[in-house]
Amino acid sequence: MDIRLLVIGMLIPLLALKLSLNEAVIFKFTNVVCENHNKTWITVHWCRLRAISRNKTTFNLNVTLNYPVDHPVNIRGQLLQKANGYKPWLFSANIDACRFMKRAYNPLAILVFKLFKEFSNFNHSCPYVGPIIIQDFYLRVDKIPNAMPTGDYLLVLAFSFSKKPQITTKVYFVFVEDLL
Ligand SMILES: *[C@@H]1O[C@H](CO)[C@@H](O)[C@H](O)[C@H]1NC(C)=O
Ligand SMILES: *[C@@H]1O[C@H](CO)[C@@H](O)[C@H](O)[C@H]1NC(C)=O
Ligand SMILES: *[C@@H]1O[C@H](CO)[C@@H](O)[C@H](O)[C@H]1NC(C)=O
Ligand SMILES: *[C@@H]1O[C@H](CO)[C@@H](O)[C@H](O)[C@H]1NC(C)=O
């Protein structure tokens, strides 16, 4: 069989799938929780969602770091999918945030950072002190490389600095591919 025909034959359904997914998909936050483990160091003013429309919610975070946060800042990230409770799925990563801000690495971290960086004031190198803001952040399908299976997801990011867990954010979201 002609290899080009085979490739085209495989690409067309994939493209059609991608197009229909982009047209009819729900990709939105359903809940957020910020667990502050050190209220001396961190003040969480708000960590909440706003419903904009049936298929759009925005995540708004306003945190003050009362003391400087510098290297090493460890972020343990886990992406879980719901199936009789949340079970580990696909990704788990440990990154050094200060190193990441100097030069991005790790595919999951790059993907997550790409999704929210323009809504935040994070884009600078360590140290961090004072306001940490994420404003009107919403999920966009065109920012992810591939469609995910329909499901409920949870992204847990546990931040440790001074070698202790200091804050954990839990971001719940839904991805629905509607192929009708
Ligand atoms: C999402 O909601 C907006 C406004 O309510 C609407 O225009 C758009 O078609 C909706 N998109 C999907 C995929 O449902
Ligand atoms: C909480 O933060 C304060 C201020 O930075 C720090 O001195 C203290 O060690 C931290 N506590 C823990 C358990 O990390
Ligand atoms: C964050 O909260 C503080 C304290 O309530 C407030 O002064 C500040 O204006 C807020 N920042 C933003 C961007 O809303
Ligand atoms: C921060 O923003 C600058 C300028 O927009 C960009 O060149 C740089 O790559 C960004 N850094 C990260 C870690 O995204």
Blueprint of the fold:
Elements: H1 3-23, E1 25-36, E2 42-53, E3 56-69, E4 73-82, E5 86-96, H2 97-102, H3 107-116, E6 128-137, E7 151-161, E8 164-177
Antiparallel strand pairs: 1-8, 2-3, 3-6, 4-5, 4-7, 7-8
Would you mind describing this structure in some detail?
With 180 residues, the protein is of the alpha+beta class. The protein has a single domain, classed as Distorted Sandwich (Ganglioside M2 Activator Protein, Chain: A), CATH 2.70.220. The strands form 2 sheets. A 5-stranded antiparallel β-sheet has the order 1-8-7-4-5. The radius of gyration is 19 Å and the shape is globular. The two termini are 33 Å apart. Bound molecules: 2-acetamido-2-deoxy-beta-D-glucopyranose (NAG) (4 copies). The site of one 2-acetamido-2-deoxy-beta-D-glucopyranose has 4 residues, from loops. One 2-acetamido-2-deoxy-beta-D-glucopyranose (NAG) binds next to loops. It comes from Drosophila virilis.
* CATH architectural group: Distorted Sandwich
Give, in order, the helices and strands.
Answer: HEEEEEHHEEE
Question: What percentage of residues falls in helices of 4 or more residues?
Answer: 10-25%
Low-confidence stretches are none
Outline type = globular
Using the CA coordinates, give the radius of gyration.
Answer: 19 Å
The CATH superfamily label reads Ganglioside GM2 activator
Strand content: over 45%
Distance between the termini: 33 Å
Throw out a few tags for this protein.
single chain, 180 residues, alpha+beta, Ganglioside M2 Activator Protein, Chain: A, five-stranded antiparallel beta sheet, three-stranded antiparallel beta sheet, 8 strands, binds 2-acetamido-2-deoxy-beta-D-glucopyranose
